[in-house]
What does this fold into?
Amino acid sequence: MKIYLISATAVIFLSVIVSLVIPEGKLNKTIVFIMRMACIFVLIQPITGIFKISTSATDSAFFDYDYICKVYSDNQSEQLGKIILEKFNVESECNVIIVYKDGEFTVEGVSVQINEENKEKIEDIYEYLEELKYINISVYAKSD
It folds into this structure.
């Protein structure tokens, strides 16, 4: 409220000064009109705040973030499986968990299940995922 009062006072003061400084003529009427409009806009500013629509309330109404996270997680999981097959030559089932939090999508965890019992590959895949900056990583061999 303090900032609003300072702004209103400043605009009105500026309007009065400009009105006194501008010489009479065609330009005077235009400038006085513009300054009066500026004063009116500043004075009705608190009223316009009532009619503002909050974007945070409308965003959640238009988007199903759980569905988007699921689709994004499925896609990331599939791509990670392809990368592991290409890089480490091992079949795997990947699960990348993605959540929508604080206005952005973030990876909450990764699990990779490989189809062979090879401790070295498990460690190599784990290190590779750490290099990719994944968090909450679990890599394990499939049990029969």
